[in-house]
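User: Teach me something about this protein's shape.
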Amino acid sequence: MGGEVIPIDGKTIRGSYDRNQGKSALHVISAWASEQRLVLAQVKVEDKSNEITAIPALLELLDITGAIITIDAMGTQTEIAKQIIDQKADYVLALKANHPTLYSQVKEWFEQAIAQQFQGINVSYDQRIEKGHHRTEIRYCWSVPVSAIGQLYQPRVWAGLQSVVMVIRLRHLWNRTTREVQFYLTSLHSNAQIIGRAIRKHWGIENEAHWTLDCTFAEDACRIRSNHSPRNFALLRRIALNALNREQTYKRSLRQKMKRTAMDNNYMIQVLSCCFIDNTLNSSDSLCQA
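Assistant: First, the predicted structure itself:
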């Protein structure tokens, strides 16, 4: 996985709750290979716990040497950053108000730096414009070395921290314009183009995995909820998603591929055989361990 962006994110399977048994909905953490479009591993978040304890267990399943791990604000923890560095990978972690002192300091520093147009500051800048789905999105990315921010709050507790990043997203829709500001901590050197690409690819797990599981596989609508069934079927859906993504001879949507698989035994065997390609087999092993 060297050099590949691996987003990690959680998903709640909303239909798996059981009110009569007092059982809450299943929540799982997944790792997504952005280039290969494969679910690499899955770990259940234990009851009365959260993603902070599940993410380290997920990382232990993977060989992430040389990869870039992206995680949202819940996973922005010093222990997780250290584990990623110990496993010889890099991280891009979202910084939000769950770290109030550091977040406020970084926000104020960037506001002042922009007002002064980054005069005398070693800054890397990148801008991207994308059009689609009846909207135009402009993303501005600024990256500065940690040393550029004087007296940064406890920088040494973040293993391998090299740069601090600010991203502004402007979305022009037909009836309104939205503006979003986001900050990140990263072990990558200050290069706005590389960091901005990694941040953008983080959304692949939402758009190509979680959205597909909900809309194509109807995961949230599924009311399977007895014993270990929700977890087992969540595993099977992700293996099916991997197999359908790997099968490239039938150039149709996933929904059309699923329908043909149900009606054509030969095509079903062709799809299933994709699971036994070496790389995909390794991914399936990780899923089974999870």
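Now, about its shape. Residues 243 and 274 are 6 Å apart (CA to CA). Confidence is low (pLDDT under 50) at residues 283-290. If you'd like, I can walk through any region in more detail.
User: That's plenty for now, thanks!
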